[in-house]
Amino acid sequence: MHANEFCNVFTCQTLGGLEMIEAHFTETVFGKHAHASFVISVVDAGVMYFSHRGESHNTLPGQLSIVAPDELHTGSKGKGEGWRYRALYPSEERMKELNHSLFGTAQTPYFRQSVINDARLSLQMRSLLDKLTCGSEALDLEEHWERLLVNLLLQQSQCPSKLTFSKAQSNIESVRDLLADCYQQKLSLDEIAQQAGISKFHLIKEFKRYFQLTPHQYQIQQRLNHARAQLKRGFSAVDIALNCGFHDQSHFTKAFVSAMGITPSAYRQQFFTR
Length: 274
Prior knowledge:
Layout: E1 6-12, E2 18-25, E3 30-33, E4 39-46, E5 48-52, E6 55-59, E7 64-67, E8 73-77, E9 83-89, H1 92-103, E10 115-116, H2 119-134, H3 138-156, H4 167-181, H5 189-196, H6 200-211, H7 215-232, H8 237-243, H9 249-260, H10 264-269
Antiparallel strand pairs: 1-2, 2-9, 3-8, 4-7, 4-9, 5-6, 5-8, 7-10
Organism: Marinomonas foliarum
InterPro entries: AraC-bd, AraC_XylS_family_regulators, Homeodomain-like_sf, HTH-like, HTH_AraC, Tscrpt_reg_AraC-type_HTH
Keywords: Activator, DNA-binding, Transcription, Transcription regulation
């Protein structure tokens, strides 16, 4: 991490272990990566540049950005000397439950825009983040969290009935599930192509078209997601590299820094020094 940068990670047990990050980056560049959860962030100062769904975005102070699970994105400073932001990471399961209660479908919500310029939603997001930081009462936190998510879904998500899924996408999604379930294993291209019932070349092409990642890159992201969970439980980087299928500790550390902006040991320390 560069001088004057910081990245603080918190969890709120009142909201089911919801993870929150507050960070300031100046020179750090996040390579292509994805998360197992949704990422809802707000820029407090500076400009955050990121690519998402094949488009580039500059997020300004007060604007929200939202990225769904397994969606590839990057991150770096836009114009100026860097950016300061805060983010929440609601689980896919939580969002599905809320989507079902609002729209009667258990599908993962799909948000139309990567960047949301809505003053009311921004105010709700910042108010919740401030309450999380100062330790408000449980009922107050729960009310603000529920209101923010409901408004996001009602105002920004696409109606599930408009989404269509082809047989080809279903086959590719079965490969995605295999890679997620077998993240520790050294799978061959033959094995996963057989799972999809298509040629190896077609598999690579179609998988990247749907998920913006090659199968191997997707598997690395799954390993990182499991690594984060193990770091929170106090596992060492050496053990995690072995547990999650990385070649060695150096390979794990390099991949983690590229995705999170801090080393595994710095990330873990934040959960055991409070």
